[in-house]
């Protein structure tokens, strides 16, 4: 689903996916994945468009439910961070990653997929929620 930071449709995307999650066959884990494709030279301005997916990891694309799409992750090197707390506090974690850690690291942000791994019982409003934030990097 296309969106921007100022026109964030994440809630709508997950509201469409979650009622149909049991239709997805060949799941490898109970986790959910929130994936973003920002494109080449994307910037973090509020109106910059990007593509977001609500998805799960599968072992096979053999049985794809109607009106669902497959996506093969490019793979590569990632820096992985743990965000603890509600989704509304994730901006602080992102500020640390992109404002402090990345500029001080030996890595450069890569233009591959960014994603978050959410446990099966993840709730975006839970003050004790945890999620993995995967940021594509290269040397």
Would you kindly provide a written description of the structure presented here, covering whatever features stand out?
With 139 residues, this protein is of the alpha+beta class. The protein has one domain: Regulatory factor, effector binding domain (Multidrug-efflux Transporter 1 Regulator Bmrr, Chain A), CATH 3.20.80.10. It is 17% helix and 27% strand. The protein has two helices and seven strands; from the N terminus they run βαβββαβββ. Strands 1, 2, 3, 4, 5, 6 and 7 form a seven-stranded antiparallel beta sheet that branches. The relative contact order is 0.22.
**Helical segment count:** 2
What is the C-level CATH assignment? Alpha Beta
Unreliable stretches: none
Mass-distribution shape: globular
Number of strands: 7
- Strand composition percent: 25-35%
């Amino acid at each position: 689903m296309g969106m921007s930071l100022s026109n964030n449709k994440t809630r709508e995307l997950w509201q469409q996916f979650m009622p149909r999650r049991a239709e997805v066959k060949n799941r490898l884990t109970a986790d959910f994945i929130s994936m973003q494709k920002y494109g080449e030279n994307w910037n973090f301005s509020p109106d910059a468009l990007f593509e977001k997916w609500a998805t799960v990891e599968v072992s096979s694309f053999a049985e794809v439910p109607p009106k669902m799409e497959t996506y093969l992750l490019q793979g590569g090197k990632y820096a992985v961070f743990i965000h603890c707390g509600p989704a509304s506090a994730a901006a602080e974690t992102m500020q640390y990653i992109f404002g402090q850690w990345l500029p001080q690291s030996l890595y450069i942000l890569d233009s591959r997929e960014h994603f978050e791994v959410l446990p099966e019982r993840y709730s975006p409003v839970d003050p004790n929620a945890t999620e993995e934030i995967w940021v594509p990097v290269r040397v």
